[in-house]
Each structure stands twice: as C-alpha cells, then as structure tokens.
Amino acid sequence: MSDYEGGPSNDDDLSLPRATVYKLIAEMLPDDITCAKDTRDLLLDCCNEFIHLIASESNEICEKEAKKTIAAEHVLTALKELGFEKYVAEVKEAYSEHRQQQTKDRGRKGNKLKQLGMSEEELLREQELLFAQARMRFQNQTTQDQTNGSALSGTQ
C-alpha cells in the first residue's frame, strides 16, 4: 500500500507552491501584460504535470539500474528519453551551480571551528568540563532531594 492511499487526497501536497509560481509568472511577463487567474492555474498544473512526468521516468530509469535513489544522471536521461533534449544543457548548468553552492556552504560550516579561536582539543576539554559541572549539579540536586525526602518522611 502506498503512503498516499487511504489518506485524504490533497493535490496541494504534491504541487509546487502556488504563490511562488505566480510570482515567477509575474516576473517573466512584461510590465504592461497581466495574466488571468485561470491562466496562472493552468500554468501551475502544467508545471506540476511536467515535474511528475520527469520524476516518474527518472524513477523507472533508477529502478532499471537497481538503484534506490534518483540521481541527477537519471533525470538527465529521463529528459532525453521524453524528448526534452534541448533542456539537458541548461539543467546540467543549473546542477553544476547547485553543486558549487553546496561546496561553498560546506566550507562556511568548516570555518566556524576556526572562527572560535580555539583548537579542537581545547573545545573538547571545555566540553568535558561543562559535562562534569552538569553531572555535579545533577548529583547535588539528587542528593539534596533525597535528603529533603527522608527528612519529610521522618516528620510524618
């Protein structure tokens, strides 16, 4: 049974964000041209259908290769097999830009350690000290609670 069977059927769960698509449509049109709501909805439906088509074909290609995860190569092959070869170069370029951005983001995360001004060994010592202090507070609180509890039970 699939994840979607038996539950409420909501097309918005499997759709592009309506406001985002509307914004893209508005940005692409010249300032003196407007787009009717029915037309925007139709474009949204077409975009969703296109994505589902590519995703389904990519999934089939992935399964034929006995893979469990759809990779960029599967999407590129799906585009070619479905007759959308003219988009392959642009998709490859966008994917390359995405990978470069991911690399930059990973580099920024690695720099956080350097920005702290402490070596990894110093940070580990500081962490161990904080853990020891927390254990002491916990043990003191537990001992105090037990002492208070026994004092209370002796007065009853």
Textual characterization of the structure:
By secondary structure, this protein is an all-alpha fold. Helix content is 72%, strand content 0%. The N and C termini lie far apart (61 Å).
Secondary structure: elements and pairs:
Elements: H1 18-28, H2 37-64, H3 72-81, H4 88-115, H5 120-155
SSE arrangement, N to C: HHHHH
Low-confidence stretches: 1-9
Gap between N and C termini: 61 Å
Number of strands: 0
Gross geometry:
elongated
Strand content: under 5%
Task: Give the helix level as a range of percent.
Answer: over 70%
**Helix run count:** 5
In this structure, how is the largest beta sheet organized?
A: none
Give the mean pLDDT.
85
- Class computed from helices, strands and strand pairing: mainly alpha
Please tell me how large the radius of gyration is: 29 Å
Keywords:
single chain; 156 residues; mainly alpha; 5 helices; disordered N terminus
